[in-house]
Amino acid sequence: MKIYDTLTGEKREFVPLHEGRVGMYVCGPTTYDYAHIGHARPAIVFDMLRRFFEYRGYDVVLISNITDVDDKIINKARERGEDPIEMAHYYAQEYLRDMDVLRVRRANIIPKATRHIEEIIELVKTLVEKGYAYESDGDVYFSVEKFKDYGKLSHRKLEDMIAGARVEVSEKKRNPMDFALWKAAKPGEPSWPSPWGQGRPGWHIECSAMSMTYLGPTLDIHGGGADLIFPHHENEIAQSEAATGKVFARYWMHVGLVRFEEEKMSKSIGNVFLIRDVLKKYPPEALRIMYINSHYRKPYEFSEKNLEDAKTLVEKIWSTFYSLQKAAEDGEASEEVKKKIEETRERIILALEDDFNTREAMKHYLDFLNFARNLDGEDAKAALDFLKEMDEIFAILPQESSLGIEENLIELILEVRNLLRKEKNYALADKIRDELANLGIKIEDTKNGSLWYRTR
Length: 456
Ligand SMILES: [Zn+2]
Fold this sequence. Notes:
Elements: E1 2-5, E2 10-13, E3 21-26, H1 37-55, E4 59-64, H2 71-80, H3 84-101, H4 117-129, E5 133-136, E6 139-142, H5 158-163, E7 179-184, E8 199-201, H6 203-215, E9 219-225, H7 229-244, E10 249-255, E11 258-260, H8 262-267, H9 275-281, H10 284-292, E12 300-302, H11 304-327, H12 335-353, H13 358-372, H14 377-394, H15 405-422, H16 426-438, E13 441-446, E14 449-454
Parallel strand pairs: 3-4, 3-9, 9-10, 11-12
Antiparallel strand pairs: 1-2, 5-6, 6-7, 7-8, 13-14
Helix pairs in contact: 1-10, 2-3, 4-6, 6-7, 10-11, 11-14, 12-13, 12-14, 15-16
The chain binds zinc ion.
């Protein structure tokens, strides 16, 4: 497997620290509002990457944090007259629910900053003791000049950064690029006791403290959105490596940002592109496919058309899936089908092992789908099994409902509709089809009888 590493700027063979294991840390959201579809992209990419590693037989430990104390949270809570941490925890819960619906499997550990204050203080203490950080009026800053590799991830030189710095001038800082590890409490803000007085952690330090708590000083893959490269990840490297003297992350993976067509976005800004609103109109799998169909490192230009197209693909995949399910019989598949499956599997794996090229993998998947669409009997069964196998990685096939009642009712309605068709009462049969479509249940009349699937 080759991974493009932001730090070295090249694709490198992936070699984990411990054979057969992958330790991943992915920066999660600062929760002060509902998640929008931009948040879904890194979540879906790293979910798929984790699934792929597992498919390839690795044990994966994924840590993904929630930032639950931060200026944005404090400001919003103040506007609303709410408790900042309670508010952050409410939105964290809602974020996780949205991700559940998107079939993003929950990380092994989802640490919150406010639950790791002790570890954070310990790390800041170490940095002060080693001379990398200094206290100033109740704040503690990291001294970027002391860390000679500062800028290595974002490929910037410290002198240039200082020259171009528009960082707010603070008399508390020795260098304008120094960043806060600990902030002295202001009245009314959440705060904790520390050796430097009451205060709260800066944003960057939490990820270093929490990743080291769960994964040790060196982790395999550190991921996040491309907007985190600077300053967040640059600062994480500086403070972590200054504290431990060890390589912090062996590979840095960054997911391109989602851009919205500005005009259209501003017209419908706010609720329309919240994940929960999008999911009223589109199946979660459409959002997955939309992002799977792009290269993770490239910026993504969002448009509703892309989402429409992805929905059409979902319908195509599901209709093939259901039609195969109807036609499948146990037994030995033909050589031709077995060969096609093997070929496709190999191509998908090759694509994913080349810096996780999901777009290329999807091409091979869809090519297989076209091939499989009209198979029946043992061949249909083999194709179906292969699609299910691939779904360990993609998670785009329909999910089995935990309750059978709905399915049974729909089957009953279909039976009635077929009787109506036999009696040539097409008007009523069509009405049933259209009304079900309005409810998000699509009926297709095929040579194997009527099949149905959910479109949202
Ligand atoms: Zn982070």
